[in-house]
Write a structure and sequence with these properties.
The protein is mainly alpha-helical and 660 residues long. It is 67% helix and 4% strand. Keywords: Membrane, Transmembrane, Transmembrane helix.
Amino acid sequence: MTFKKNLLKLVNLVLFENYGQDLTISEIIKKISEKYSLDFADNEIKSAISSAPSGSIVEARPSTDPVYFTYSISPNEYKKLQGKIIGDALLPFIEQFLNENQSEEFLACAELEDVVCRFLYQQFNSDIQTVLALMNYSGESNQWNLEVTGFSDKEIISLNAFLNWENASKNELIFKYVSFCYEYCVMTVKKDKTVFASIFKGKEFYLDANIIFRLAGFNKTERKDAVTAFLSKCRECGVKINYSNFTSVEIDTTLKHHTDRIKYLLGGSAPISVDAMQRLSSKYANLDFYAQYVEWTKQPRNKIGDYAGFLSDLKRQISKCTAGMKFQAFETFDQLKTKEIFDEYSQDLTAFKAKRNKGTYEGSIKVDVENYLLMHKLTENSRSTNFFDEKYFFITADHAYIDWACEKMPGSIPLFVLPSVWYSIMLKYYGRTDNDYASFCQFLNQRISEPYDELQTQKTKMLACVLEMDESTEIKEEIIFDIGQRLSNGTAIIDDVEVFVEESHSRITEKKVAQAVQEVEKNHQKDIREANRNATIKHEEGFNKGIAQGRNDILYSQAEQIVHRNKIIHIFLIGLAILSVLVVASALIAQAHTGVGVAVPVLTAIGEKPIIPSIISAAFILLSALFSKLGKYISFFSTDIENVKEKLEKKVDRHQAKKK
């Protein structure tokens, strides 16, 4: 979009807002200046109006002097613009966000709308100042009056949640609002879009360690996605990505620092959950590396307490991220010929960050100064008057570092820039997708500034006391949660940290003992119920067994009596049979001796035919066997006690069945 078309937009907006009035060129210039803080010459306004489509702007000539010519938009153009005015476009998105994400941590709808508008207003102003500085604009620009420069923690939490909310239309609208500043800056320096189209090619960005850590995923997934999208857009625009040996040293030092800190906290113990750790850590503390360690220990191949292995794994992840970047090595500035300026800057940056409650770790400060002096060395022989021609920039997420660098070189082109500034310029002049808009919104997230917390030092001591306890991880976490609960109830400064921790320790121990006693009592009652149940079962089994045994004894006794009786009957019958045989034999012998009697003819026949005795003997044996088998089958006069008992049981069962 050309400068002339942008200016025509402003003219149309002014005429739209003053519909029904005819404005002269000077009146249009005055209203643009009042509302947008932009100044234009008469011929620029006339040129823009002359480029308008035929019939969209109506010119009236009440005089022959062009100074008195007036202009207004046509009714058709008014209707057309009326449909394009955004109006309160944010409110529906805020209402939808709050409906989908209900939380006590979030502001009410009207309050959140106010916070978002204030934030966009400040972001717009901040970006204008930065981009105009990059363009090395030397003219006057309006200093916007920001009545509110800060936000409360709750406002920042609500704002960040809204910015992070996944909604493509919302993301595009936010980008449009913020990117208006680039249209503003283009209008201010009076350059066309075509000038911006090729400015990125050949530039080189040096990345700070915090950008690389975000890329590795050590600082929330959303930030990783945002940095990944930013670097992808850089490469698409032809920007080379570098990192210095100073940044590499800071990466290694930072990884070792956080690994040693975790080792100091835990030793060989299993890590407590991140949730528990947060209870006694500052809400501003960086627990990203601790969270990495917790996840790392969950992998089967990794061992708890193997901090060397954990550090190696972190370095491997960093190596993957920097594989597509160019490593650049330079001599240190912490040496004899530059020692004085190096030490001076180190002290100055330390004091600057301390005033803003930012980290002042000596190693990090030195690396920041090394990179600051490096950027000046790279540009000292080719400093440009605008960012179109400047080749080297340092990309960092450290706001305090950027402010300090700007303070050290006022009036010059900023070499230390937030990724959001460059990213939004790239999005403005290159293709954009929903993912690009979402990543841009991630860059807009605000950090909660860390106030002085009198309790935090004591919280750190409490955490150390708990971690040193010879207790299980579960017990340690419960103690920490108990301490956190007590502190959240408005506990003032603690007189004796160890006593305070021991009180929570005792509370949890007593609770665990009570739970254990309750569990023992519960198990004891369970054992008693089980014993009673078993006793009842055994009693019933014994009773039934006793009844069965009594019945068995009775039946057995009766069977013995019957068998005894049957044996007597058997003896009697056998004796009777023998006696009968003897009587018959005696009679036969007597008749055979005297030769007189009815049996004499039979005896004579037997004597004459010897086979007859054999037939009689066989018949006798057969009858004896038949009666024996029949007796066993029908148990008639049986002498088998089990057989007799079985018959009695069946008889009793039939009798009981009839009774039922």
